[in-house]
UniProtKB/TrEMBL annotation:
Family the UniProt entry places it in: Belongs to the GTP-binding SRP family. SRP54 subfamily.
Gene3D superfamilies to which the protein is assigned, alphabetical: P-loop containing nucleotide triphosphate hydrolases (3.40.50.300), Signal recognition particle SRP54, nucleotide-binding domain (1.20.120.140), Signal recognition particle, SRP54 subunit, M-domain (1.10.260.30)
Protein name per Swiss-Prot or TrEMBL: Signal recognition particle protein
Domain note: Composed of three domains: the N-terminal N domain, which is responsible for interactions with the ribosome, the central G domain, which binds GTP, and the C-terminal M domain, which binds the RNA and the signal sequence of the RNC.
Superkingdom: Bacteria
Organism this protein belongs to: Calorimonas adulescens
Keywords: Cytoplasm, GTP-binding, Hydrolase, Nucleotide-binding, Ribonucleoprotein, RNA-binding, Signal recognition particle
EC number: 3.6.5.4
Gene that specifies this protein: ffh
PROSITE patterns documented for this protein: SRP54
Matches recorded under HAMAP family: SRP54
SUPFAM superfamilies: P-loop containing nucleoside triphosphate hydrolases, Signal peptide-binding domain
GO biological process, one term: SRP-dependent cotranslational protein targeting to membrane
Subcellular location: Cytoplasm
C-alpha cells in the first residue's frame, strides 16, 4: 500500500493531538518532532523536511490556532495544506498544442518503466478522443522496439519504427511526417535510457529535443528508488530541461519520499503516477487527494471517478429492481464483483475510504486472489445452480470445487456468506429502504 508506513505514523501522531483538547506550544512542537522523524524515515529529502516543519510550526503555534475550539483539527488542516503545497497544489495536465501534432518526449533511466508508461499514456489520451502515435527511438536496448510494437498492437495504437541501425534523431524527425500522413495528433517518443546518467545519453536527448522541439518533455522515474529518483530528476532537469514527471510503481512504494520531495527540489510538477501493471493503471497526480489519503481522510473524489468510469449505471438500476423483488442471485453477485474488480485492486480502493488507517487494516487480508477464487467457484456452477443455490447438494459441491480448482470448504464458505447476505437484504432491502437510498448495492462483508 502506497505511503503505508508514513500514513500510519502521521495518523497516530495526530490522533494523540486530537485527544488532548487544548494544546500548548510544547504539544505542537512535540508532534512536529514526530512528523519530522516520520518524513525522514519515509526518505523525504532532508532540506525539504526542514522547510516543511518550519512552515507548519510557524502557522500552528499561533494564538488563533491554540485557542480555537478544535486546535488539534486546526494543526492537521495546516499539515494537510502544507503537504498539498509541497507536492504542487493542483493537478497539472498535459499541454496539448493548439496546432497538432503535440510532441511528447519521454526520458529516463533504464528500468524506470519508460516504455510501458509510453503505452499507458497512449491508452490514457486515446480515451480523450486523441489519435496517438508511438515512436520507437530506443535503438540500443534489446527488444525495446518489439516491446513498444506489442504494446501498440494491444492498444490498437500505431507504432513508428525505422529499425535498430538508424540514428534516433532521424527517427524522431521522420515520425512527425508519419503523424501527418496517418492523421495522428499526438506523438509519444520513447527515447533510450541507460543504467546511469552519462554524457552520451544526455547529448543524444539534447539533439532529439532540438530537432523535434517537443511540447512536453516528461521524465519517468521509479518511485521506489526514493532519494535516487529525486537526484535523477534534478540531473535531467539541469541538463535537458523537463516539463514534468511521471512516477512509476507508486503502488509498491510504502515510504513515498520521491513523491513528497521531487516538486520542491526540481520545481517541476508530477503529472501522472503509475499504480499497477495494467494499461489503465496510470492516474493523474492530485496533490490534494494524496495528502488526504496520507492523513487518513480518504479520497472520495477518486473513488467516485473510478466508480463512474467502471460501473454500469443501467445494471445498477436493474439490480435495484431485483432487490425490490428479492430476486438477487449468484449471477448478480458475480456481476457486482466483476464491476468492483474493474475499479482496481481492492487494497487501493480501501485506501480511498475516509477514516480507514493502515493500522486499522492490519491483519485484514484484502486479497484480489480471493475475488478471483469466488469468480472461479461461481463460473463452475450451472445456470440453475447460480439462480437457486439451494439445489447445490454434496455431489454438486464436490464437482464445483474440482471445476474451480478450490476446496469443498471454499465452496461451502461462499454459499454460507451468500445466504447470509441474502438474509441481510431481506431484512433491510424492503422497497421503502431501497427507495430511500439506505441500500443500493450489495458488497462483500
Amino acid at each position: 500500500m502506497a505511503f503505508e508506513s508514513l500514513a500510519s505514523k502521521l495518523q497516530e501522531t495526530f490522533k494523540k493531538l486530537r485527544s488532548k483538547g487544548k494544546l500548548t506550544e510544547k504539544d505542537v512542537k512535540e508532534a512536529m518532532k514526530d512528523v519530522k522523524i516520520a518524513l525522514l524515515e519515509a526518505d523525504v529529502n532532508y532540506k525539504v523536511v526542514k522547510d516543511f516543519i518550519n512552515k507548519v510550526n510557524e502557522k500552528a503555534v499561533g494564538q488563533e490556532v491554540l485557542e480555537s475550539l478544535t486546535p488539534g483539527q486546526q494543526v492537521i488542516k495546516i499539515v494537510h495544506n502544507e503537504l498539498v503545497e509541497l507536492m504542487g497544489k493542483t493537478n497539472t495536465h498535459i499541454n496539448f498544442a493548439s496546432k497538432p501534432p503535440t510532441v511528447i518526449m519521454f526520458v529516463g533511466l533504464q528500468g524506470s518503466g519508460k516504455t510501458t508508461t509510453c503505452g499507458k499514456l497512449a491508452a490514457n489520451i486515446k480515451k480523450q478522443g486523441k489519435r496517438p502515435l508511438l515512436v520507437a527511438a530506443d535503438v540500443y536496448r534489446p527488444a525495446a522496439i518489439k516491446q513498444l510494437q506489442v504494446l501498440g498492437q494491444n492498444l490498437d495504437v500505431p507504432v513508428f519504427t525505422m529499425g535498430n541501425n538508424i540514428n534516433p534523431v532521424d527517427i524522431c524527425k521522420n515520425s512527425i511526417n508519419e503523424a501527418g500522413r496517418i492523421g495522428s495528433d499526438v506523438i509519444i517518443i520513447d527515447t533510450a535510457g541507460r543504467l546511469h546518467i552519462d554524457d552520451e545519453m544526455m547529448n543524444e536527448l539534447k539533439e532529439i529535443k532540438e530537432a523535434v522541439k517537443p511540447h512536453e518533455v516528461l521524465l519517468v522515474v521509479d518511485a521506489m528508488t526514493g532519494q535516487d529518483a529525486v537526484n535523477v530528476a534534478q540531473n535531467f532537469n539541469e541538463q535537458i530541461g523537463i516539463d514534468g514527471l511521471i512516477l512509476t510503481k507508486l503502488d509498491g512504494d510504502t515510504r513515498g519520499g520521491a513523491a513528497l520531495s521531487i516538486r520542491a527540489v526540481t520545481g517541476k510538477p508530477i503529472k501522472f503516477v503509475g499504480t499497477g501493471e495494467k494499461m489503465d493503471a496510470l492516474e493523474p497526480f492530485h496533490p490534494d487527494r494524496l495528502a488526504s489519503r496520507i492523513l487518513g481522510m480518504g479520497d472520495v473524489l477518486s473513488l467516485i471517478e473510478k466508480a463512474q468510469e467502471n460501473y454500469d449505471i443501467k445494471k445498477a438500476e436493474e439490480l435495484q429492481e431485483k432487490l425490490l423483488k428479492q430476486q438477487f442471485t449468484l449471477e448478480d453477485f458475480l456481476d457486482q464483483l466483476q464491476q468492483i474488480k474493474r475499479m482496481g485492486p481492492l487494497s487501493q480502493l480501501v485506501e480511498m475510504i475516509p477514516g480507514l488507517s493502515p493500522k486499522q487494516l492490519a491483519g485484514v487480508n484484502i486479497n484480489d486472489r480471493d475475488v478471483s477464487k469466488i469468480e472461479a467457484i461461481i463460473n463452475s456452477m450451472t445456470k440453475a445452480e447460480r439462480k437457486d443455490p439451494s439445489i447445490i447438494n454434496g455431489s454438486r459441491r464436490k464437482r464445483i470445487a474440482m471445476g474451480s480448482g478450490t476446496s469443498i470448504q471454499d465452496v461451502n464458505r461462499l454459499l454460507k456468506e451468500f445466504s447470509e447476505t441474502k438474509k441481510m437484504m431481506k431484512m433491510f432491502g424492503s422497497a421503502d429502504s431501497i427507495k430511500k437510498g439506505k441500500l443500493k448495492l450489495p458488497f462483500m462483508h
